[in-house]
């Protein structure tokens, strides 16, 4: 019997998993499901840690665009390969990996078909003990990172990397404005600092801004105390405006972001945590020749590039709190409270 065949034989046949039916994370159900053997070019990954996103709150409420109902939630998992399909080459049992957010986004641009391979929204995700995934979706976790840290990479880190170092990377000396101190934002601050930018972070909390300062962020603004934070950004930049904005706020922050960006600057349209329902003011954006860049996570290729930067600079993800698998609903509640800085993680194995 081959090594692979032995490993497959010793695989459990049952895997515990959470499911949501879009009726709130409070109603997440923990249940047992049959675990099949990996076929062809699939591998079985034993999940060690899962990190939560703002998106996971939306999926749990049933308000994520095109989401599947009755789904295993969560996109961001880190684990080890425990079984290989017969056709898998180049990977071995024990390799530490993350599946990419969209399993089929290998390189290049997103397409409708690729988008619909997004874990934990369109297809069953990673909040479970074992998952079978195609080998083309796998990215190795940098050796110096734990599983908990590795689990923060597929969505928040890669989105931030794509914004800061995507098709038109920021340059050393650029000003980068980061809104808030959530998962995407803190990674963006880390990547921008590592690339020589001057970083301005806004937050609702002075305590959270202290965490950003400890990471090396040069300027901070409390947007609750200073509602004209856009004017403060212009002051900091001598009236010029910033080169890049990590726009996770959406409708309620976009007008101020447009004021705070330099002419022909980049607003990386990423999220909508600030709420509100006014449309994006396209005309004003055109008049200021701003490039509005919609971003949908990133590719395996970009994930690999990002890991080289992480490793070169030994950047450590900021993990705020770790919950056990059985405490998953508490982890969701903590994320929803927005008391966190950086990432909220669920530890399994
Ligand atoms: N397009 C993509 O590819 C992509 C990928 C990942 C995430 N996203 C989106 O990006 C957004 C952030 O996701 P996340 O997972 O990083 O969220 P998160 O960790 O839950 O972060 C939420 C943080 O947003 C900040 N915030 C709330 N209201 C704000 C406001 N008015 N102005 C500035 N900051 C505000 C708060 O930080 P403070 O308390 O410090 O203010 C809060 O802690 C979400 O809308 C998510 O859906 C998009």
Can you give a write-up of this model?
With 349 residues, this protein is of the alpha/beta class. It starts with a helix and ends with a strand. Bound molecules: NADP nicotinamide-adenine-dinucleotide phosphate (NAP).
Q: Key features?
A:
349 residues; alpha/beta; Quinone Oxidoreductase, Chain A, domain 1; Rossmann fold; 2 domains; seven-stranded mixed sheet; 12 helices; globular; binds NADP nicotinamide-adenine-dinucleotide phosphate; oxidoreductase activity; ADH-like_N
Q: Could you name the ranges where pLDDT drops below 50 across 5 or more consecutive residues?
A: 1-6, 282-287
Q: Using DSSP, what is the number of strands?
A: 15
* Distance between the ends: 28 Å
Overall mean confidence score, pLDDT: 93
Ligand types: NADP nicotinamide-adenine-dinucleotide phosphate
Number of helices: 12
Kindly provide the radius of gyration, computed on alpha-carbon positions and rounded to a whole number of angstroms.
20 Å
Overall 3D geometry?
Answer: globular
Q: What is the level 1 CATH name of the largest domain?
A: Alpha Beta
- Assembly classification: single chain
Predict the CATH topology of the largest domain: Quinone Oxidoreductase, Chain A, domain 1
Taken as a percent bin, the fraction of beta residues is 25-35%
- Helix/strand structural class: alpha/beta
Architecture of the largest domain, CATH level 2?
Alpha-Beta Complex
Q: Summarize the main sheet.
A: 7 strands, mixed
Percent range of helical residues: 25-40%
The SSE string, one letter per element, is: HEEEHEEHEEHHEHEHEHEHEHEHEHE
Total discrete domains: 2
């Amino acid at each position: 019997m081959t090594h692979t065949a032995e490993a497959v034989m010793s695989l459990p046949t049952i895997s515990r998993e959470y499911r949501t039916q879009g009726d709130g994370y409070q109603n997440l159900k923990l249940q047992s499901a049959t675990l099949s053997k990996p076929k062809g070019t699939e591998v079985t990954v034993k999940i060690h840690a899962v990190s939560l996103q703002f998106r996971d709150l939306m999926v749990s409420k049933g308000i994520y665009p095109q989401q599947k109902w009755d789904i295993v939630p969560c996109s961001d998992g880190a684990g080890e390969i425990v079984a290989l399909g017969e056709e898998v080459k180049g990977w071995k049992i024990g390799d530490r990996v993350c599946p990419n957010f969209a399993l089929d986004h290998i390189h290049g641009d997103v397409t409708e078909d690729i988008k619909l391979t997004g874990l934990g929204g369109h297809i069953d995700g990673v909040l479970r003990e074992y998952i079978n995934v195609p080998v083309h979706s796998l990215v190795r976790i940098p050796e110096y990172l734990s599983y908990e840290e590795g689990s923060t990479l597929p969505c928040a880190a890669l989105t931030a990397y794509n914004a800061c170092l995507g098709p038109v990377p920021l340059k050393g000396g650029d000003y980068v404005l980061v809104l808030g101190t959530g998962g995407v934002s803190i990674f963006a601050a880390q990547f921008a600092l590592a690339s020589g930018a001057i970083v301005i972070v806004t937050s609702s909390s002075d305590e959270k801004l202290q965490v950003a300062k400890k990471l090396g962020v040069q300027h901070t603004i409390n947007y609750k105390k200073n509602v004209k934070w856009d004017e403060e950004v212009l002051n900091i930049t001598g009236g010029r405006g910033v080169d890049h904005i990590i726009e996770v706020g959406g409708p309620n922050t976009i007008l101020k972001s447009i004021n705070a960006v330099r002419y022909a600057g980049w607003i990386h349209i990423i999220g909508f945590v600030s709420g509100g329902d006014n449309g994006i003011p396209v005309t004003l954006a055109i008049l200021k020749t701003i490039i509005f860049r919609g971003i949908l996570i990133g590719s395996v290729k970009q994930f690999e590039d990002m890991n080289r930067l992480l490793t070169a600079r030994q950047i450590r993800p900021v993990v705020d709190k770790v919950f056990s698998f059985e405490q998953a609903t508490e982890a969701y509640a903590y994320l929803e409270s927005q008391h966190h800085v950086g990432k909220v993680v669920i530890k399994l194995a």
